[in-house]
Design a protein that fits this description.
alpha+beta, 3-stranded antiparallel β-sheet, 11 helices
C-alpha cells in the first residue's frame, strides 16, 4: 500500500512525497530523461546502478543522473516500508539552469557525482527547508512563485556542490557468500558486450557457473532478468543514436544488436512507450551524422 502525501509541479521541476507500507520493489526497470534527488525520511532502500547494489537509509540523499539505468527495491522480505521525498528536474530544465548560471555546471555535477550520500543533520535540514519552501510557494502562488521555486532549487544545488562530502558516498553492498561478486562480474560483462549475441550458454561458459544459478542470483541481486538487462542497455544506446545521429532506425537496430527490426521496435516501445521513429520526431535537438565514440 502507498500514499502520496504531496505532489506539485512547475515548468520542468516537480516534487513528490510518498509513504509506502510494507515490502515494495520497483516494477518499472528504467532510465529516464529526468534527474532525481531522492531523500529518505524513514526506512531503507536497496538501489542498483553501475552494476552494483547500494543500501540507502534514513537521512541519505540519492542523486540519480539522467539516463542512468537503475532499480530500487526492499532490502529484505521483512521490510515495513519507507517514507521518501523525490525532487525531479527534467534534462531540459537542468540545461536551462546551466545556461543561466554556466559556472554551476549542474549537468556535469550530476554526471560525475551521482550516488548515495550520508547527509549531516544540517544538510538534512537544508533539504527539508527546500521541501517546505516548494510547498509554500506552490500553495500560495504569489507573483513569480515559479521563479521563486526555480531559484530555491538552483540555490540548493549550488550549496550541494559546495558542501557535499564526496567521501561520504556509499560503497557497493557485498556479502561473503560470493553471490554478489558473481552477479557484479556478469553485469559488467553484459554492459560491455550487450550488442553481441550473449546467451545463458555464453555466460555459463564464461564464468563457469550453471545457467540455473545465473538466472536465479542475477534476478535476485539486480531485480532484472539477464535478457531484461541486455535489452535495457541496448535500448539506452539506441536512444542515444536516435538523439545524436541521423542513422536510420534499421541501421540503429543492427548497431545495438537486434537482427530483427520488428523485435527492436517492439522492445524499444516496451521501455520508452513510443516507437523509435516517433521518439526521434519528438526530439528538439540537432542530429549529427557521426556515431558517438562510446555508445
Amino acid at each position: 500500500m502507498e500514499k502520496v502525501t504531496y505532489y506539485a509541479s512547475i515548468d520542468g521541476i516537480s516534487l513528490e512525497h510518498m509513504v509506502r507500507y510494507g515490502k515494495f520493489d520497483m516494477r518499472v526497470k528504467h532510465f529516464h530523461n529526468e534527474y532525481e534527488i531522492f531523500y529518505i525520511l524513514e526506512g531503507e532502500r536497496l538501489f542498483f546502478f553501475n552494476n552494483r547494489n547500494f543500501i540507502a537509509q534514513k537521512g541519505d540523499l540519492i542523486l540519480v543522473d539522467t539516463n542512468l539505468i537503475h532499480m530500487t527495491k526492499s532490502v529484505s522480505e521483512n521490510d515495513t516500508g519507507h517514507n521518501r521525498i523525490i525532487l525531479y528536474v527534467t534534462g531540459q530544465k537542468m540545461q536551462d539552469i546551466d545556461a543561466k548560471y554556466p559556472t554551476l555546471q549542474l549537468v556535469r555535477f550530476f554526471h560525475e557525482h551521482y550516488g548515495i550520500y550520508h547527509l549531516t543533520p544540517d544538510q538534512q535540514e537544508q533539504f527539508m527547508n527546500l521541501y517546505y519552501l516548494f510547498k509554500q510557494e506552490h500553495k500560495e502562488k504569489k507573483r513569480n512563485y515559479k521563479q521563486a521555486i526555480e531559484l530555491a532549487v538552483t540555490s540548493y544545488f549550488l550549496h550541494l556542490g559546495r558542501e557535499l562530502d564526496f567521501q561520504s558516498q556509499q560503497i557497493a553492498f557485498l556479502n561473503n557468500d560470493g553471490k554478489y561478486s558473481h552477479v557484479y562480474e556478469i553485469a559488467d560483462y553484459l554492459s560491455q558486450n550487450n550488442s553481441q549475441n550473449v546467451t545463458l550458454d555464453t555466460l555459463s561458459s564464461q564464468f563457469f557457473l550453471s545457467k540455473y544459478y545465473i538466472c536465479r542470483v542475477f534476478k535476485e541481486v539486480t531485480g532484472y532478468t539477464v535478457s531484461e538487462y541486455i535489452n535495457i542497455h541496448r535500448i539506452q544506446r539506441a536512444k542515444r543514436y536516435l538523439e545524436e545521429t541521423d542513422y536510420s532506425v534499421s541501421a540503429i537496430a543492427e548497431l545495438v544488436g537486434y537482427g530483427s527490426l520488428t523485435h527492436f521496435e517492439k522492445t524499444f516501445k516496451t521501455y520508452m512507450t513510443i516507437s523509435p521513429l516517433k521518439y526521434r520526431k519528438t526530439l528538439n535537438i540537432v542530429t549529427h551524422t557521426n556515431i558517438p565514440t562510446n555508445p
